[in-house]
Amino acid sequence: xxxxxxxPIKFVAFVLIITVAGGGFGAFAQRRAKRKPxxxxxxxxHSRDSLSPEAREMVELASAVVCKERSRDPKGSVPIDDMxxxxxxxxxxPEAVAGAKRAQRLLPIAxxxxxxxxxxxxxxxxxxxxxxYDPRLQRAIARVExxxxxRPDMDSRDNASVFLRNPHTIVFGTIFLAGLPxxxxxxxxxxxxxxxxxxxxxxxxxxxxxxxxxHASKLTAMKIHEQRAEELTCDLVGTLAARSYVSTTPxxxxxxxxxxxxxxxxxxxxxEGDDDHLSPRNTIHxxxxxxxxxxxxxxxxx
Length: 302
Hints:
Blueprint: E1 2-3, E2 9-19, E3 26-33, H1 53-72, H2 80-84, H3 94-124, H4 133-145, E4 149-153, E5 160-163, E6 169-173, H5 174-179, H6 183-199, H7 206-220, H8 227-248, H9 255-260, H10 280-290, H11 292-300
Parallel strand pairs: 1-2, 4-6
Antiparallel strand pairs: 2-3, 3-5, 5-6
Helix pairs in contact: 1-10, 1-11, 3-4, 3-6, 3-8, 4-6, 6-8, 7-8, 7-10, 8-10
């Protein structure tokens, strides 16, 4: 969905597309729209592909683990509603400097993980069978590989964004950088932004977004189409990238703690969604429904 550039906007852990005045280039930003909260309405009350009672219970247990780990993890992410309430943070503050350095260091790793994750999802969701699959995916990958720089920005506060007129830079609000103190948390957000860059102005990944959204809708009985499907797919790639990072960087930290960091910024008190975004906590549930292996790893720690 494209909104006029005068639309009032705040941060949520998802992405809106904003039209930039005077040109055909959009900006992708992780934000929350200033709209009246809406409940996520059921797509259907009885879907043949909906979660079984056992799978639904596993999602609930895994979701609880994520937020419990956040509360006791020294590197736990700050919930996005908490970030919004914090005062602006100068670019040269120690927290912002450390966050920017971490994001820049992890950018090459995140790019490689996003490429791998996109290829995996293309296979899992039969994106390969869509018209023009190969050139579309190759162009998407090329756009990911062209990203080079992280730029901290005080005025962006709790947002991260990419302008398509300058798709080589990801802009991070300083509050956002400070609120994601772990490698896993930063990688999940980098991956989210990189997927939007991969999609580009030509909507290269739209068939994949539709397939993921349709599957998630059937599993959760929530309406996850159009912009919601795109946001959820970006978050899904974020969890896949973070999981791959965890598997390739051994640590003495508990597995469930490291995996939780990709999701725990959604552990909000004010759980609000809108037409373009699932609410943060419903986002956790949808991502876990799409990835039952991740749910089991969170619950059982292995």
